[in-house]
Amino acid sequence: MPLIAIFAERALTPLEEIRDAVIVVDGARIAAIGHRGEIAVPRGAQEFSAAAGVTVIPGFVDVHIHGAGGHDVMEGTEEAFDAVTATVARRGTTSILATTVTASPEDTCRSVAAIARATKRGEAGLVDARAEILGVHFEGPFISVARRGVHPAEWIAAPAVGLLDRFVEAAEDTARILTLAPELPGALELVREARRRGMVAAMGHTDASYAEAEAAIAAGVRHAAHVYNAMRPFSHRETGVLGAVLTAHNVTAELIADGVHVDDAAIRLLLAAKGVARTVLVSDGTAATGMPDGRYRLGSFEVNVTGGVCRNAEGKLAGSTLTLDRAVRHMVSLGVELTDAVRMATLNPARVLGMEDRKGVLAAGADADLVLLDGHLDVTRVMTRGVWGE
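Now predict its structure.
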């Protein structure tokens, strides 16, 4: 691939704002970034000048997404993965964790094995304009029946190292996050086992008390899935899992900022408690993402989408149609600085995965995942590992 020099009025790394920026891309990586007067553009490089008012940011990293473009990742087919990754890439998401929904062990292993193959294709350097799959986020089956949301009750399982072993073996070395309910018998052993295997242990779909959540954090939980949703509600006398998440300095918190899943006042409370550095924007996107209203699959069951909101047959929220560019715009509409909103959708999730050296950041040596935003914060163009999208 040829050298490319990208010129823009502004770039957000996202920790630093660079005015009159130039980004030199060599193949799939960023070779250099800085102020135009500081960077020597290699002779023969293709030059691309962004339009006036455009800001270049890192590609979004979504660590909690089930599907998009009419397909669910648990379908486990190349067609499904291509549809999901192409759909979200057009909206600026250049990396994802394919996220499971509670299902039978056999279906979970089959889907996870397919996700692992798709992940390894990206690791092998097969680069195109689609988002890269970075691995698997296991959401379930070790969750609370009381806080299951729309996860099928018949497949919820008690925490067991043997069952986790089956899942991790199917995922090979692509298992990244395990979300569970820490109050369940055996859950803390699973937390320690997940950590031993290099996974991020997360709390979610949980009815845990404050003490139970604190015990999980002591055992190694460092992340919380879609905070507020599918969790015991906060009370001033028994704050529950939310009290532990909001006050733990070493736990990052996912947020679905679509204006539906979490009230704006609750978003402000989360930011006040966790700060920008420990808040992670996620989509919890489903097959309906990027599609018109209608009926779609989420794992093994159907969801109905009306007005862009996903619900199951009981009327419960069932994932979303959110994309991270919309989440960033929503955060900015609440008064959050653009740099901070971008950080929550790029660098922060990359840090959760320990991939901040190459994902979610504009820096020499990082993957050339770039998003161009216009003055309205709409995505105008996307580059994924050095390849421009449509």
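Residues 70 and 234 are 35 Å apart (CA to CA).
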